[in-house]
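S1.2 Input.
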Amino acid sequence: MALVNGQHPVTGSSADEVKTNIKTALSEKTFFQLSARIDSVSNDTLYVHYQSSKIDKNYLLRLAITESNLSSKISRGENSGKILKHESVVRIFTTMELKEDSSTAAIPLKKFIPGNNCELILFIQHKQTMKIVSATSVTF
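S1.3 Output.
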């Protein structure tokens, strides 16, 4: 099962249906604009400055640090002996209220050290419907 934009459930193995739902979601107009930049890393915390064109108590700001170019060697089961590659693995995920249109978010890194294969993804999501209305990313 895949859930496109928090609203459109589709069978994950149905590539055409997933693509159609993604295309529809991307064509929808949004009233939020979001931008971000990494300010600094200090004391096991990443500081990110974000700016939103609007604030609304019904929306949350979600922040995820992802890592790509990972692999794992499988030792058991049907994939035994294979090396599986992984992209955009979420290493850190946090949520905050969207109370200010411009602020700095502090993300605890929990001893994770972001490197060249990492990206910070930010998105604004409705609390009840889970619809994502804006997103942006910053590479490390």
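S1.4 Remarks. The radius of gyration is 17 Å.
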